[in-house]
Fold Gustatory receptor.
Amino acid sequence: MKYRSFALAGTVVGLCGVCLNIAAMLFIIYGSNESSVSYRMICLPWSSDLACGFSSVFVVYSSAAWILTIVFIAFICNILSGQLAQLTYDFTETFGGVTNFEAKLLDTFRRNFNILRRSVELADDMLSPLIAFAYCTHIPGMIFLLYQVVSGGTGISYTLIASFWIMGSSVNLAIISYFAVTVHEKAHSLRRHVHDLQTETFDPEIAQIQMLFLARLDGPEIGMTALGCFVITKERVLAVISTLITYFTILLQFKGLCSDDVNAMATANVSTTTDIYTT
């Protein structure tokens, strides 16, 4: 039931985002005072009214693909992280404070974990191209739009829409990163509990199962990847955020230096002109 509620809420929010993006795209084509044929860059290489009309149709599909894909990724990751969290909860409830248990019970949890791990791998095979595409398009798009907004020279309407797209890309990346990191965290949350297992007497069968369990938990990272290149973890997400903050800081400093140079050149030109007329 909770997964159905999450899917319904995510779909409603996603559809609202799709409608806002469609409105922004149509405003660029038809709504602003600058929307003459020469300004209809979205319709290039054909900027006629007919081409822009066809582009308006594709705007609906592109907006849905841009936003609803994120909702789908979040839904799958939410199911996986919920199942992994439930397994951890059941494990702690079963073995918490217990020192006398059967090896078969521990092996059941190990097998259930392997099933969930395989589910994560199958989901990653399906979603990793979408996640990689989202990172490879949203981050450069945010950098380009930030430069356009900060550098100025564009109309107010374009600045507002560019800011909307920056916020949309940021939200999309935040959603993907949050749910992907949650899958990774929940997949490895059993590690500490399996480490802390204790028995009254040494049982070689339990010890062997525990070692197999820990070998899988301490082995290669489990989680969602970007085309299998790297697992999305909290540390890697923070590295991406710090890179974007560094770029934005450098961009602001560069803009400030350019403004100072322009003012200095203008002052020098005024002084030169004054000297010429004085002499």
